[in-house]
Amino acid sequence: MRNLWKVGALSAVFGAVLSVGGCSDFEAAYEDCKGEGRCGPQANEDGGSDAGDAGSDAGDGGDGGDNTPPPCGDGGVDYPDLTGFDNDCDGIDGVADAGYFVDPVGGRDDGYDGTREKPFQTLTRALREIRDGGTGRSIVYLGTGTYNEPAPVVDLPVSLYGGYTWRGNGNAYWDRFKDGGGSTVFDGGTLAFTVRDVTDAGVLLEGLTIASADALTAGESSIALRVIRGSAVQLRRVIIEAGRGAPGENGAPGNPGPQGGAGLDGGSAVTFGSGRRGDGGSSICSTGDAGLGGIGGTGNNFQQGFDGGDGFPNTPGGAGGAAGVRTNTGPDLYNCVAEQGLDGG
Description:
- There is one protein chain.
- Helices cover 10% and strands 18% of the residues.
- It has 345 residues and is α/β, with parallel strands linked by helices.
- The protein folds into two domains: 4-241, no CATH class; 270-345, no CATH class.
- The strands form four sheets. Strands 3, 4, 7, 8, 11 and 14 form a six-stranded mixed β-sheet that branches. A four-stranded parallel β-sheet has the order 5-9-12-15, with no helix packed on it. It has a three-stranded parallel β-sheet with strand order 6-10-13, with no helix packed on it.
- Helix 1 packs antiparallel against helix 2.
- The radius of gyration is 52 Å and the shape is rod-shaped.
- The model is unreliable at 1-30, 36-63 and 333-338 (pLDDT under 50).
């Protein structure tokens, strides 16, 4: 005959220990319970063997899921561990009556009581029950799946254990770290999870994945796990994945720069055109009707000037003046001006 440890009376004891110790001294709580005569090995209610009451051994799972009991030990204290083994044969790794159960897929926040047959849907709901329910429980067993609830805030001593797979539909069995069972993932936005104001005791997070989304608002951060004014926060088998922060806003325009210095003087202009044609000569005649000489011919760059115009009245114009002489002697052969031609006759 297999002995079954009835752990219903352990609820208040475990709750008291957890609220003081933070991460649960299961062994001491169990010994206290046993010493007070509230816990011990008991046969099935009909006093017979397990075979005579196989239905009760499988729990009250009804018609939901697989009712085959998971492998288990020979009794004693069963604290959740990373092997996922059910040591006390109550159907889970851990003490079922010492905590609340949450399943993000099959659970309900309204109408369910957080037991393993009727789990809550969100961690936030379980934390509220721990805070306000008055049961003394401070453990939460978290089913696998993704929790998209807005960033949960843990502000009281509590132990959170992930990696449980509920068999569903009222079944009392929860397998832990089952092959293919998935992970317990919190993914609630750019701030995924917060622990704050827990300074008199500890918080334990085990078997969880906490991930934050990429930030979209300019200058916004992406924070997976934030701890504010907390101490003795323990993480075991926890994956933390922060997203990318958003780029900052564009900076303001800079101040105007100082005024630039004065530029260098420009170079001298180069003359390429012809020289100005000479003025007409005055007549040397003394008579009052003496005419004026014709206007001088236009200069022709460095060649002889053009012929002058006819004088008045009818005096033929003189020949063009001789070519002007280049006045500069430097290397710039183009920076020169022809001299004025001689006056016309």
